[in-house]
Amino acid sequence: MFRVERCKEAVPANAPILYVHGAFGQRLAVEDDVDDLFRNGRATVSLGYIGLYEVAAAFFGGAWEGNDEAKDLTLAVLRRLQGATAAWKAESGYHFSVYSTPSESLTDRFCRLDRERFGAVTDITDKDYYTNSFHYDVRKNPTPFEKLDFEAPYPALASGGFIHYVEYPVLRTNPAALEAVWDYAYDRVGYLGTNTPIDRCYACGYTGDFDPTARGFACPECGNDDPRTCDVVKRTCGYLGNPQARPMVHGRHEEIAARVKHLPGSVRVDPAAPTGAADAAGSNPSASGSGVAAGG
Ligand SMILES: [Zn+2]
């Protein structure tokens, strides 16, 4: 409710486009109370969470993904959070939701605070980061289909926001593999990020995944890590970020460095390889097929 009270301190003149000119779907006079636009389900206050993987790891060990009892525990945690938001809504008249928060920095902070208190706990605080929301442990490589099946039950309990993502190698010559995952995801999840290697070195011409270093990323061919002559793009959390130009907190960097691909293949873009769906599907259908089979 602190957040709600803080928002209510605003007056329409603070943001006329939002409050006075109708961007919130209702026009207020400059002397009106902005609370009219927040109450009765017109706005959402979110309860965020992070680290369901670590919660179950604490009780069932670090490889619990196939354990129904462990999975039920993580779903029960989310149901408990959802129940709390429903109660707050009934009590206050404001709409609360459970949010699978991006945790850009919290991934580092929560883990660091727990490490100070509990020491280095295997698969929990020893990684220097906490796993985002309900995500599959980033260090493991289930197929994209297994990952989506595993994660699919969670967003229904966390409607305030979420993302699934899959890490791919270069799939320029095998777009059918991408399409197979997207087709599979379409009926199962609400929001899917696709991460493919697109880092670029302007010093030597390399395109693909840069290698993680202690603090950032460097070209695997020539070692270049100068943000003026390279372009590094990683999915920070929900959005894409450029960690060379804008470094991340330690824990987030460790988390990205720990991510593995969910399909086999090269992380270097071969400039000589054909690109595009027509090329790949037409010239080498068996390669496309094997990629899909490897995933399924
Ligand atoms: Zn280079």
TrEMBL record:
Entry-linked InterPro entries: Form_AcTrfase_GR_CS (IPR019777), Gly_radical (IPR001150), NrdD (IPR012833)
ATP-binding recorded as keyword: no
The Glycine radical domain, residue ranges: 140-265
Record's keyword terms, sorted: Organic radical
Keyword Cell membrane: no
Ranges of compositional bias, category Low complexity: 270-296
Database matches in PROSITE patterns: GLY_RADICAL_1, GLY_RADICAL_2
Top-level taxon of the source organism: Bacteria
Region: Disordered, residue numbers: 267-296
Modified-residue entries (Glycine radical), positions: G238
Matching SUPFAM superfamilies: PFL-like glycyl radical enzymes
Protein's name according to its UniProt entry: Glycine radical domain-containing protein
